[in-house]
Amino acid sequence: MNRRHFMGQSAAALGLLTGLSGPARAANLQKAEILVIGGGYGGATAAKYLRLLSNNTARVTIIEPNPEFISCPMSNLVVGGSRKLSELTVSYDGLSKRHGIKIIKDSVVNIDAAKQTVQLASGKSMRFDKVVLSPGIGMMMDSVQGLAQANQAGVTLQAWKAGPETVALHNQVAAMRQGGVFAITIPEAPYRCPPGPYERACQVASYLKANNPTGKVLILDANQDVISKTGLFKKVWADQYAGMIEYRPKHNAVAVDAKTKTIKFDVQDDVKADVLNILPAMRAGDIAVKSGIANSNGRWANVNYINFESTAAKNVHVIGDAIQIAPLMPKSGHMANSHAKVTAAAIVAELSGWEVNPAPVLTNTCYSFVNAREVVHVASVHQYNAAEKTFRTVPGSGGLSTEPTTLEGVYAWGWARNIWADSLA
Amino acid sequence: MHITLRKLGLGLTVFLGLSQVSMLAAAQNADATKLYHRSLAATCANCHGTDGKGVPEGGMPLINNQSSAQILATLKAYKSGAREGTIMHQLAKGYTDEQLQIIANQLGKK
């Protein structure tokens, strides 16, 4: 009896230990089923850093339908014809072979946060303790009447997710009649990659300058003005592409007619063009919308910025373009990589029973090619503000290039090679 | 006698338990601190490579051949404006001196 009592007290003391101690909690980290949904900049980085920061003890699975990673950053160079898609393609082998991450080639069709399960397109169901959801963007095709049909007819393309469409858009540009018009429409911000459409206009113009010098590029922007690198882009258009690129603000595309290749706007006159690159309004990737995680206007996912946990679903952490952004936070690949690291560290800390870092930091750098070689950048540093529970850019930090340079063209490729390695190798 | 033993045993258990807890807590804090340092230095990895190991001849200046002191001096020079750059003078200004110190310690050649 006494001995049993003694054992009981002992067990209670041990219970105290297991409740508080590192190793006992670390078992939670090792036992936890962590699913990463999406293998883009956000998801790939989250998976790799969950392994690195747990000293390779966390069990991590990526669910991604594509066989390889294809980078959106740099893909405008493929549209402009100076680079090939294969140069922007990276294998997932580094994550699986070097980092021990299980990769399932499938799509998630539902996330049940209450039951802590996900359903895959193949019919399989998987249990989870933590999900990192990095679903990218979805296109709101209904925001432009006739766009779905025009896409289906092969008349319009978005090419806003890098892949075969990127090459198809280049082929349309290359096949355009001499003196033809390439039109790109830009939705109201926020959308993926704020400077991306303006960079694309430069890349198409760069191609036309050499191959179709009487061709035109029309930028039809729903916003009041160029929303990123404004002065730099406008100067490039005047200096390098005078008479070729025309910028029209306050042009909100509402409809497209595939037969006549005409774009209609809510206020402005119709525009006809030869190649139509129509970018509709965007929102979080479909799985976030379907699972009720896109709880900001049904478009983006609200998160607690300290650990990127969804405000709609416990143990589901949302990163990358899909989130409702903090002030001045761009939807970029670099930012998704930054979100992923903060999230990976927070999950490792939480599952180890440690305090989550109360002062995380995010960075963003974004290089835009204004022709095949010259580049301009924008950069920012975002520190977590505990009082406001959001990220704020640091006054006096960040900024822009002073002018396009080939040196920054070299750094842009340096950035690409390093971030691909940091995310995937 | 029996009671005394039991009290002694319990006392020993509680004593051992608490000392183990504090030892483990210390270890846990060291691990948690290490996690914080690694995650802060990871904000450099996008451009300069995971753990500062950049892609050789990738186009970006390599930093893994520098000591912690050299890295810190460079970062502080960027932050103060003493050193010009394309982008690093803009990024360095976003970090506190303490954060730069941690980053330099973490990424410097060991």
Brief descriptors of the model:
heterodimer, A: 425 residues, alpha/beta, FAD/NAD(P)-binding domain, five-stranded parallel beta sheet, 12 helices, 26 strands, globular, B: 110 residues, mainly alpha, Cytochrome Bc1 Complex, Chain D, domain 2, disordered N terminus
Structure commentary:
- The complex is a heterodimer of chains A (425) and B (110).
- Chain A has 425 residues and is of the alpha/beta class.
- Chain A contains 12 helices and 26 strands.
- Chain A has 2 domains: 211 residues, FAD/NAD(P)-binding domain; 142 residues, FAD/NAD(P)-binding domain, CATH 3.50.50.60.
- In chain A, a hairpin with a 4-residue loop joins β24 and β25.
- The longest helix of chain A is centred in the C-terminal third of the chain and has 20 residues.
- The termini of chain A are far apart.
- With 110 residues, chain B is mostly helical.
- Chain B contains 5 helices and no strands.
- In chain B, α1 packs across α5.
- The N and C termini of chain B lie far apart (59 Å).
- The N terminus of chain B is likely disordered.
- Classes of the chains: A alpha/beta (425), B mainly alpha (110).
- At the A-B interface, α1, α2, α3, α11 and β23 of A face α1, α2 and α4 of B.
